Amino acid sequence: MVMMSLELTGKLPFDTVMLHGLLRDAQGRKMSKSLGNVIDPMDVIDGRSLEDLEARLCAGNLDPREVARAREGQRLAYPEGIARCGADALRITLLAYNVKNLDINFNVAHAESNKRFCNKIWQSFKFILSKIGDGPFQSTDFKLTGQEDSTDLWILSQLSHMVHVCHAHFEAYDLHLVVEALHQFWYRDLCDVYLESVKPV
Fold first, then answer.
1. How many CB atoms lie within 10 A of CB 139?
2. Domain ranges of the chain
3. Which PANTHER family does the record associate with it (predicted)?
4. Contact (CB, 8 A) for 176 and 95
5. 77 near 106, Cβ under 8 Å?
6. CA-closest candidate to residue 111, choices 94, 99, 123, 124
7. How wide is the angle at C-alpha 21 spanned by C-alphas 175 and 169, nearest 5°?
8. What is the pLDDT of residues 122-168, one digit of tens each?
9. What is the Cβ-side half-sphere exposure of residue 39, based on CA atoms within 13 angstroms?
10. Are 54 and 79 in contact (CB under 8 A)?
11. Following DSSP, what letter does each residue of 114-135 receive, concatenated?
12. CA angle, corner 133, sides to 129 and 136, nearest 5?
């Protein structure tokens, strides 16, 4: 990309590059076709049955002994196949790992957990938008109205703190800490406390 951009435009396409460690399977093994532990991102996004995973192994060019070993590995790792998690859950999962480590042990179960997190975001927005009223939401500069109660002021302070924490972690390229701060704010502060307290009113 750098060479092509310099040749065609005379400019660098970016000035910062973030390198990451080697992506391994959940047990810390290097991903290998013969082990059957290679994880295709599309399998995590769309989901795959164990039968589909095994069919792909058999259609490849592996030695029959390696196919048997790989099938056994898949049966142990994904007895029910790989659940459909979606692209957003996969993105959050990859960001949640400390990419500065030399090795990153990718676990499909983490993507399944983050699918629930994405669903929590969707559900809370659905609730909030149902209370805003009809018509499209219009974003405006935020100003306190003087009608906020202590719970409103508390969630605004928690949001402000989360924004500052995320900004600091973005600056340090600690994306896993950004995801952690978002998880804590969304689950604990927004959904578990604030939304539950305002539902009656």
1. 6
2. 11-121, 143-201
3. VALINE--TRNA LIGASE, MITOCHONDRIAL, VALYL-TRNA SYNTHETASES
4. yes
5. no
6. 94
7. 15
8. 999 999 888 887 777 777 888 888 989 999 999 999 999 999 999 99
9. 25
10. no
11. HHHHHHHHHHHHHHHHHHH-SS
12. 70
